[in-house]
Specification:
The protein is mainly beta and about 375 residues long. The protein has two domains: about 180 residues, Sandwich (Jelly Rolls); about 160 residues, Jelly Rolls (Sandwich), CATH 2.60.120.260. The chain is built from two helices and 29 strands. Strands 1, 4, 5, 20, 25, 26, 27 and 29 form an eight-stranded antiparallel sheet that branches. Strands 8, 9, 10, 12, 15 and 17 form a six-stranded antiparallel sheet that branches. It has a six-stranded antiparallel sheet with strand order 19-28-21-22-23-24, with no helix packed on it. The longest helix has 8 residues. The two termini are about 20 Å apart.
C-alpha cells in the first residue's frame, strides 16, 4: 500500500522529512484564517480563507522592494494632499496590532498614499491588504501599480469594495523600456469612494503574480526559494516501476495565461541530465518528461485547468513508455520506452531543472512501488 499524505498532520510530517529552504519570516495563511510567519526550514502548510486545506506552499525566490511594508507613517511613503496615517494601530490580518488607518482619501482632490522603488525594465506586481471600517464598509478603494520616470504612461489598477474582512489586493504592470522605477498607489475612485481604509502589508515584487507577503522594516527583504526534497531510500522507492499520484495547484500570472515553468515533482539522480518530472510551461498543458540524457521522452496531457486543484498520476516501468493521467482523463503515453536510471532524490514542487518552482501547493501525494493500470490511474485522479 502507498502512504498518502492528504491532511495537515500528514503533510507536516512528510514535509519535515525534507530539506525545506524557507527563509525565516515567510508567511502563509493558517487554519484559523490568520496570517502566520514560519521559522527557517519550517514547512508552510497553508489554508484557504474558508479554512479548507490548500497544502504545502512552495514558491520561487522573491524580494519585497518596499523598505517599510507596515510603517506607513514613515517618510518613505508619500502622503499626497491631505492624506494622513492615524497613529493608533489596529488589528491586522496576522491577529496583532500591526494594521494602520489611512485618513482623508479624496478622489476629487487626488489624495493618495504612494510608495516608490527603483527598478528598471521589469514586470512588477504590487499588493496591499485592505479592510473597511465603520461608514466606509461598502465604499471603494483603488490600488494602482505604475511606472515612475521616462516618457511612457501606463498603470495597472484594481478597484475593491471594502468589507469588514481583510482582503489582499494585487495588480501587475509591465514596465516599458525607459522606466526607471515603479510605484504602488492607494487612493479612491471617482464614485462610491472611501475616505478612510485600514491597510497592512505593502509589497512590490518583480514578477507577473503576487507571492506570499514578505515583511520589511527599513530595507528590502528577500525570501529564498522553497526546496523540498526527500531521498528515495526514505519511502521504499522501486527503480524498476512506480507510480506517483499528486494533487496540487499552480499559480498563473495576472494576465490569465501562464508561460512559467512550474513543476509538481521530479525524480533525479543528482544531475540535471536524467530526470522524471511532471511540469507545465503553458496553461492547460502538463508534461511528464522522462529524460535520459540527451533524449526527452514526453507524455503530454492537454486541455486541463492548472489554476485550480489538479490531480495527476504518473507511472513508469523499465522497458516501457511512461504514462500520465490528469483529472481522470485518458492516459497520455510517451513515444519511446525507457529504462529508469538510479534516481536518488524526489523533489516536491520542483525539478532538478532551473527555475521550475511550483508557485502553488502540494495538497496530497502518494507513491506506489509498482506501475498501476490505466483504469487505476483514472480512478485515483477522478
Amino acid at each position: 500500500m502507498a502512504k498518502v499524505y492528504d491532511n495537515a498532520t500528514d503533510l507536516i510530517t512528510f514535509a519535515r522529512l525534507q530539506s525545506q529552504n524557507t527563509t525565516s519570516g515567510s508567511s502563509y495563511l493558517g487554519s484559523d484564517g490568520l496570517l502566520k510567519f514560519a521559522a527557517e526550514d519550517e514547512p508552510r502548510i497553508e489554508y484557504g480563507s474558508d479554512g479548507s486545506l490548500k497544502g504545502l506552499l512552495i514558491e520561487e525566490q522573491r524580494t519585497n522592494l518596499v523598505p517599510y511594508s507596515e510603517d506607513f507613517s514613515n517618510a518613505a511613503w508619500l502622503k499626497v494632499g491631505t492624506v494622513a496615517i492615524d497613529s493608533t494601530l489596529v488589528t491586522g490580518p496576522d491577529g496583532t496590532l500591526s494594521g494602520r488607518k489611512v485618513l482623508n482619501l479624496n478622489a476629487a482632490s487626488g489624495d493618495r498614499l504612494t510608495g516608490t522603488v527603483s527598478v528598471t525594465n521589469s514586470t512588477i506586481t504590487g499588493s496591499f491588504w485592505v479592510k473597511g471600517d465603520g461608514a466606509n464598509i461598502g465604499k471603494d478603494v483603488l490600488m494602482s501599480v505604475k511606472r515612475s520616470g521616462g516618457t511612457f504612461a501606463g498603470s495597472a489598477n484594481v478597484t475593491h469594495t471594502l468589507t469588514s474582512e481583510w482582503v489582499r489586493l494585487d495588480a501587475t504592470f509591465t514596465q516599458l523600456p525607459d522606466n526607471t522605477g515603479a510605484i504602488v498607489v492607494l487612493g479612491s475612485p471617482s464614485t462610491n469612494s472611501a475616505s478612510e481604509v485600514l491597510i497592512y502589508g505593502a509589497q512590490l515584487e518583480a514578477g507577473s503574480f503576487a507571492t506570499s507577503y514578505i515583511p520589511t522594516s527599513g530595507s528590502q527583504q528577500t525570501r529564498s526559494a522553497d526546496v523540498a526534497s526527500i531521498p528515495v531510500s526514505a519511502f521504499g522507492y522501486n527503480q524498476d516501476a512506480g507510480t506517483v499520484v499528486v494533487e496540487f495547484d499552480m499559480l498563473s500570472d495576472n494576465a490569465g495565461s501562464n508561460t512559467l515553468t512550474q513543476a509538481a515533482f521530479g525524480f533525479h539522480d543528482g544531475t540535471s541530465n536524467n530526470r522524471l518530472e511532471l511540469w507545465s510551461a503553458i496553461a492547460g498543458t502538463l508534461t511528464l518528461r522522462d529524460r535520459i540524457a540527451p533524449v526527452n521522452h514526453d507524455a503530454v496531457s492537454s486541455g486541463n485547468s492548472l489554476e485550480q486543484s489538479t490531480k495527476s498520476a504518473a507511472s513508469y516501468a523499465s522497458g516501457e513508455a511512461s504514462k500520465l493521467v490528469v483529472n481522470g482523463g485518458s492516459a497520455s503515453v510517451a513515444a519511446t520506452a525507457t529504462t529508469p536510471p538510479a534516481y536518488s532524490t524526489l523533489l516536491l514542487g520542483d525539478t532538478q531543472n532551473v527555475d521550475a518552482e511550483l508557485n502553488g501547493h502540494i495538497k496530497s501525494l502518494s507513491y506506489f512501488p509498482r506501475r498501476l493500470t490505466n483504469a487505476q490511474l483514472q480512478e485515483l485522479t477522478a
